[in-house]
Amino acid sequence: MSAPQSFFEFTLPELRDHLQSLGKEAFRSQQLFRWVYQMRVDDFEQMTNLSKAFRQELPQLLDLSLPRVLTEAVSSDGTRKFLFDVGDGQSVESVLIPSKDRLTLCVSSEVGCNMACKFCYTAKQKLKRRLSAGEIVGQFLAVADRLPPEQRITNIVFMGMGEPLDNPDAVFKSIEILHSPWGVGFSKRKVTVSTSGIVPLIPRVTQAGVRLAVSLNGVNDEVRSRIMPINKRWPIAELLQACRQHADESGDRVTLEYVLLKDVTDSIEDARALHRLTRSLPCKINIIPFNEHPNSGFLRPSEARIARFQEELMRLGAHVLRRKTMGRDIYAACGQLTTAPIQTPIAL
Ligand code: SAH
Q: How far is the CA of 157 from the centre of ligand 1 (A)?
């Protein structure tokens, strides 16, 4: 007898095929999805519309366990960071970010990352492995299970550890599973996939019907290639062309993330160049002041400089928002996620 397979790896059609191959009725898959995702019952014995014999057989076929939470940290601003054990000695982080009318879950797609962006902490931990769809779904459910009844996750962003488009099959499958009307029924309009710029896979974001965010971070190929090596493979013009195509086909604005690194990407000329590059693209610009981490070699610009950059873009008519720094005291802010052991507390 083979080991039970994780329930969370299956889409509804896949579960139906799997059960049929075991000689079970197809509609059992809907029943199971409802019990597990909608009622959050994690014990087959309690699934009372299934026969007793089937209930007893199920634990040998399907495993309902979620990634285990190793630690949880709570920031003074309410942001919560979870460290998950994903087996084989590996772990990933997810961050839950409250705001006025949203509760956003930032999920990881990989343990570590191979994109080697110079300013990102996760990049220091090279890619250990890609997560499975079930491990991504598992981050969502494990966090959702811990919320009080009056709270629910309203948005999912693939902005945690890893490059989602380096692991597209698992990422898009996890979105299908969470979107299933027999499952969580999570709206695709509330899901954002962020990429460092794997251009040939951007059309898959469009096909999946979710929102696209792109980490632009540089306004010319010289600077961008220096801080994001992936730019050597797919330079800015190609990346923005792919963004334009996504915007045309989806009718959606693309979010462009732009990290402000002191004296590298934060000048007024950079703000103007950013505007020139993006003014014909339906987009919103999300500026992210650099979050410091040990030995990064980069600095966060002063508040005055950050404000000047943002104001210049506003003056030029760009749709620009400053991403509020959340969870910096617990190392949960953008670009601070890692599961490597060095985690010195930071003075704010
Ligand atoms: N790999 C994907 C998903 C990660 S999203 C991507 O690159 O889009 C993480 C975001 O945080 C990216 O926009 C990245 O540019 C930004 N970031 C990385 N390190 C940062 C840091 N130290 N401070 C602020 N933002 C950072």
A: 12
Using the CB atoms, write b or e for 303-334: b if 16+ within 10 Å: eebbebbbebbeeeebebeeeebbbbbbbbbb
Average pLDDT over residues 252-263: 98
CA 334 to ligand 1 centroid distance, Å: 5
Write the CATH number for 209. Answer: 3.20.20.70
State yes or no: pLDDT of 1 exceeds 80.
no
Beta bridge mates, 156: 105, 191
Q: Quick: pLDDT tens for 267-304.
A: 999 999 999 999 999 999 999 999 998 889 999 999 99
> Using a CB cutoff of 8 Å and minimum separation of 24, what contacts does 19-28 make?
22/61, 24/54, 28/54
**Active-site position among 9, 93, 257, 312:** 93
Look at residue 342 and tell me if it is in a domain: no
What are 82-120's pLDDT values in tens digits? 999 999 899 999 999 999 999 999 999 999 999 999 999
Whether 163 is catalytic: no
pLDDT digits (tens, 9 = 90+) for 52-65: 999 999 999 999 99
Tell me which of 194, 230, 266, 336 to substitute to probe ligand 1's pocket, judged by most ligand atoms within 8 Å of the beta carbon. 194
Number of structural domains found in the chain:
2
Q: Which domain holds residue 301?
A: 68-330
Domain boundary among 18, 35, 63: 63
Give a yes or no: residue 337 inside a domain: no
Shared domain check, 308 and 234: yes
Do 81 and 58 belong to one domain? Answer: no
Can you tell me the distance from the alpha carbon of 80 to that of 25, in angstroms, rounded to the nearest whole number? Answer: 41
Q: Whose CA is nearest to atom 13 of ligand 1?
A: 215
Give the tens place of pLDDT for each residue, 134-155: 999 999 999 999 999 999 999 9
Q: How far is the CA of 45 from the centre of ligand 1 (A)?
A: 44
Which atom of ligand 1 is nearest to 109's Cα? Answer: 3
Does residue 243 carry a catalytic annotation?
no
